[in-house]
UniProtKB/TrEMBL annotation:
Organism taxonomic ancestry: Bacteria, Pseudomonadati, Fibrobacterota, Fibrobacteria, Fibrobacterales
HAMAP family: HisB
Natural source organism: Hallerella succinigenes
A Gene Ontology term for the protein's cellular component: cytoplasm
GO biological process: L-histidine biosynthetic process
Enzyme kind, highest EC tier: lyase
Protein's name according to its UniProt entry: Imidazoleglycerol-phosphate dehydratase
Length: 196
């Protein structure tokens, strides 16, 4: 079983996160933001994973510290779950349409950090709590850095922020599912170097 538990306590947040890449179950997600809860639930459902998140943070300020630290924990969980990455596909990519929106996510669990965010959202906030959409670029950048991956996120078009971000999270989930699946061709580490 590829699973990990991460605990992160700072003066700004206290987070417990667990990830299981091989179990399809609906974990409990409580981030302090209803919209972020919804996006992370989409990630676990469309990835075929089990994710549990319990976050207590200084949300009376805003969601910045919480969203960053949750992303750090999720990135660290990927590192623990995948280990030396023997036998996985390594690369993943997916297009997802969500009503009028279309997103694509491409990624590589390469042990190298490369982040591209080409997603101009139509409005500046999203959700009942009016979360700044800029926090989602920060979420994926922090996740990318802590998972030591290449991550390219593109939004081709869309008129509704909810639909746009939902397409991105679903595409990310399915790209991850592809990348962590057993390799059809490579039995060892998926690199000509023999290591990542």
């Amino acid at each position: 079983m590829r699973e990990a538990q991460i605990i992160r306590n700072t003066s700004e947040t206290q987070i417990k996160l667990s990830l299981n890449l091989d179990e399809v179950s609906r974990g409990k997600i409580d981030t302090g933001s209803g919209f972020l809860n919804h996006m992370l639930d989409l990630f676990q459902v469309h990835g075929g994973f089990t994710l549990n998140v319990e976050s207590h943070g200084d949300t009376y300020v805003d969601m910045h510290h919480s969203i960053e630290d949750i992303a750090i924990c999720l990135g660290e969980a990927f590192i623990k779950c995948l280990g030396d990455k023997k036998g996985i596909e390594r690369y993943g990519f997916y297009f997802v349409p969500m009503d009028e929106a279309l997103a694509r996510v491409c990624l590589d669990f390469s042990n190298r950090i490369g982040f591209v965010w080409n997603a101009k959202l139509p409005n500046s906030t999203v959700g009942a709590e009016n979360m700044p959409v800029s926090l989602f670029e920060h979420f994926f950048k922090s996740l990318c850095e802590n998972a030591r991956m290449n991550l390219h996120v593109e939004l081709f078009y869309g008129a509704d922020n909810h639909h746009c971000l939902e397409a991105i999270f679903k595409a990310f989930a399915r790209a991850v599912a592809m990348a962590v699946a057993p390799s059809r061709n490579v039995k060892g580490v998926p690199s000509s170097k023999g290591t990542l």
